[in-house]
Structures are given as structure tokens and as C-alpha cells.
Amino acid sequence: RAVPPAPAEDTVTMTVTYSEYQPHVGDQDALKLTAAGAVQETGQVLAKELLVRLHTPELTLTLLGPAMVGQEVPVQVVFQNPLPKALSGASLRMEGAGIACPKPAAL
Description:
This protein is mainly beta. The protein is 7% helix and 32% strand. The longest helix is centred in the N-terminal third of the chain and has 8 residues. It is rod-shaped and about 90 Å long. Keywords: Transferase.
């Protein structure tokens, strides 16, 4: 009895949760994924690496009043926390031409 040939291509899906990869990310905002396998019949080992850049949230800046030379102007900064946990120890710092010293704001 003939054995049907194995498919030439197959897809395997794996999910990596935030709790699994979070301890390994650090300040890099990237993950290096490695897939490896072995062909039983030939003993050949296959491997592939992929560097995945994690997307950081975009900041939206909006002036809340008219900008006039020598006058303060309120600025609204909006972003969405993409993480499944609250931020802690985060800060925002505004810099720009004409600002004598950066103004930090705790989040």
C-alpha cells in the first residue's frame, strides 16, 4: 500500500503572549524570533531568525490656545497605552527651540 506524500508546505501558528515576552524586551522595543526544525529522513537542520520591531504608541500634540511670543500656551498630549497593565514611573518631557529648560511631567 502506497503512503501518500506529505504536503510540500504546512503552516503552524503559535501565539506568544505579552506576559511571555515582556521580561525579555528591555529597552530595545524588539523581539528576535528563531524557528528551528529537523528533517527526520535526512537529519538536515533548518533555522530562520526574524527581528520584529514593536510599535510604540504615537503621540498626538494639540495646542489648546493661541501661540504667542512670550506667552505660555497649553498643550494637550494624547497617547494610548498598548500594554495590558498600567504605566508606572513614566514621564513626558517637552523640548523645543526657545524652551529654556525641558519641562518634565509625571504621568
